[in-house]
Structure to design on (657 residues):
């Protein structure tokens, strides 16, 4: 035998360390991180990011991806992805049959490209309602496991019980004068009644208007008006992070004329024309789904952004197929899984979780409250969560606040992460909580995709904070400033290559063509490209790393740098909890200046801290990147999908100055 390559030797050393951790779980994470750096610090750049998890043979062979490769006679994932984009109708036909998507009338064919790839017609001639595909398992199978902040007891809802409540809500819609096509707002935490109301609305032929439970009255009113919603479902109040959140008060302040209110322990004082949840529900537990063309709107969601008018993105009865496909093949969800993803109905991951779970015959675990303390840690353990979705800021909170110390999360077999770019140290820490048995599958996409465009899988090695593949059935290209494909270790803007089920084709309040296609370059072979706005680094060995949004790139001293790169350095300072880097033009024109907004762990003199941060940036990035100003704030503004709204910070700074 020849000598192992340096990367083979590194892999061997890392697995030896994992054995050490398995034998002694009390080894502090600081030692894990030091060991990781020590083992991989000399890894040559051509070897790519260092994987810390590899699929074992039994994990590979039992995966959903192994099944599709076996069915199609394909030997490896790379060939599978190539087949899925070169044979898109055949791929989606396989997905539809494999997931058991139900139709009242089957489609005449899978795809019609008469109007081009930017305006395809999927499943022409079909009649369907996607909720009929959500209840195709025995009624006594667990559908939802529910928990609440501060309470140790769990509640289990079966598929049969959930469908009965779905039908009672759908009948209530009809009984109270609402009709097919009407829009109904949902503004409440992600709970079992929320899921039932969501599916009942879709089953009735109406449209859900998804509104995050963190939104103010003005934001609620704006979204209801854009969607033309006639009624809103909310809760009187709920408990989160140790305090009562009064959502019905917000609804009244927003001036919403008609509300359905879920009461708590005390009766709510309802205004005229409002009705309680119990009075709205029908006693009838059967309902025949309203079927129609798959392009009928089922859900109106809104783009990132809390300033200006949000972009209203309609989901159709097709979009959930994309959610379920991603969950099945990239998340490896199966009927034995219990999936949890702390979210809300106003962010696409709320509806995504509903469909990815139920269309894959799995269960979902829903936690009402703030997912940051011992109560949530205990919930994950007691609910036997096997698939846990996260966002990077949540992981950072768990780690810095030692929020999951003492919990046993070894039952988790897969983590998934979305919402914002992650960092290696936090995600190595997360994987360490399962003894490195569970990989983190990064998942990047958007509401207008219905899921992800770049992700990972359980058949790929996992290196913290990296991606390994485009999503099946979809492809992309990364272009530099000259519209040329980037090479290894280069950064560019990601463009999608349509078509795919899940990609939006309409917007309620903006020109879809202008938003996503106008001004896009063609691909190297003349392909039509679709704008999405993500900046991606192409790394060796087939890895990728998210670099933030393309509109978060700034030009400092003639050098382009992303906000994310700066924030990663700033966040390493002992006094900084979180930061946002923003480029401003103080006079409205001329060179961009760097302004740092920081949330502090320790109170510090601002000028002294600015000097220390400048030293860090100069040492680890570029001394030409000069901090123009440092602003200390209590918290960073975020969208419902947890993205930092740098535009609002920029506007706030300029108006103040």
């Amino acid at each position: 035998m020849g000598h192992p390559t340096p990367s083979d030797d590194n892999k061997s050393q890392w697995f030896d360390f994992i054995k050490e951790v398995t034998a002694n779980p009390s080894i502090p994470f600081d030692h894990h991180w030091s060991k990781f750096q020590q083992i991989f610090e000399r890894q040559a750049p051509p070897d790519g990011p260092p994987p810390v998890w590899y699929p074992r043979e039994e994990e590979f062979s039992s995966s959903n991806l192994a099944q599709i490769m076996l069915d199609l006679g394909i030997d490896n994932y790379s060939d599978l992805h190539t087949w899925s984009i070169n044979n898109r109708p055949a791929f989606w036909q396989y997905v539809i049959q494999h997931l058991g998507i139900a139709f009242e009338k089957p489609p005449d064919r899978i795809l019609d490209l008469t109007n081009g790839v930017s305006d395809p017609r999927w499943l022409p001639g079909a009649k369907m309602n996607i909720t009929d595909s959500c209840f195709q398992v025995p009624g006594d199978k667990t559908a939802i496991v529910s928990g609440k902040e501060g309470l140790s007891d769990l509640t289990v809802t079966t598929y049969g019980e959930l469908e009965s409540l779905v039908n009672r809500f759908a009948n209530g819609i009809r009984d109270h004068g609402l009709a097919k096509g009407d829009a109904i707002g949902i503004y409440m935490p992600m709970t079992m009644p929320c899921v039932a109301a969501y599916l009942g609305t879709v089953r009735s032929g109406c449209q859900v208007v998804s509104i995050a439970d963190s939104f103010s009255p003005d934001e609620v009113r704006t979204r209801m008006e854009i969607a033309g919603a006639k009624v809103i479902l909310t809760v009187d109040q709920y408990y989160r992070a140790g305090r009562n959140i009064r959502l019905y008060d917000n609804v009244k302040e927003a001036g919403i004329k008609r509300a359905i209110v879920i009461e708590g322990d005390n009766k709510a004082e309802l205004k005229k024309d409002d009705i309680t949840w119990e009075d709205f529900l029908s006693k009838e537990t059967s309902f025949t789904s309203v079927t129609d063309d798959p392009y009928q709107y089922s859900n109106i969601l809104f783009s990132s952004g809390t300033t200006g008018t949000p972009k209203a993105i309609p989901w159709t009865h097709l979009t959930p197929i994309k959610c379920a496909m991603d969950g099945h093949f990239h998340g490896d969800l199966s009927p034995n899984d219990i999936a949890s993803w702390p979210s809300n109905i106003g962010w696409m991951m709320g509806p995504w979780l509903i469909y990815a779970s139920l269309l894959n015959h799995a269960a979902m675990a829903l936690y009402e409250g703030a997912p940051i303390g011992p109560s949530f840690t205990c919930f994950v353990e007691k609910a036997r969560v096997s698939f846990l979705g996260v966002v990077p800021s949540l992981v950072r909170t768990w780690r810095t606040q030692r929020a999951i110390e003492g919990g046993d999360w070894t039952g988790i077999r897969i983590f998934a992460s979305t919402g914002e770019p992650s960092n290696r140290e936090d995600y190595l820490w997360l994987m360490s909580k399962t003894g490195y048995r569970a990989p983190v599958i990064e998942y990047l996409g958007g509401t207008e995709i219905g899921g992800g465009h770049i992700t990972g899988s359980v058949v790929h090695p996992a290196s913290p904070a990296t991606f390994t593949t485009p999503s099946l059935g979809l492809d992309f290209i990364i272009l530099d400033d000259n519209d040329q494909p980037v090479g290894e270790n280069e950064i560019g803007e990601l463009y999608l290559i349509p078509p795919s089920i899940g990609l939006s084709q309409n917007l309620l309040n903006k020109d879809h063509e202008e938003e996503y296609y106008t001004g896009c370059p063609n691909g190297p072979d003349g392909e039509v490209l679709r704008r999405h706005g993500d900046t991606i680094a192409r790394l060796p060995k087939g890895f990728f790393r998210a670099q933030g949004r393309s509109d978060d790139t700034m030009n400092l001293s003639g050098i382009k740098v992303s906000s994310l790169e700066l924030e990663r350095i700033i966040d390493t300072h002992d006094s900084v909890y979180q930061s946002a880097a923003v480029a401003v033009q103080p006079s409205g024109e001329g060179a961009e200046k760097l302004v740092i907004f920081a949330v502090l762990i320790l109170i510090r003199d601002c000028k002294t801290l600015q000097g220390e941060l400048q030293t860090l940036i100069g040492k680890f990035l570029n001394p030409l990147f000069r901090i123009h100003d440092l602003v200390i704030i209590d918290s960073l503004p975020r969208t419902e999908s947890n993205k930092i709204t740098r535009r609002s910070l920029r506007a706030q700074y300029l108006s103040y100055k």
In short: The chain has three domains: 1-43, 130-512, 557-656.
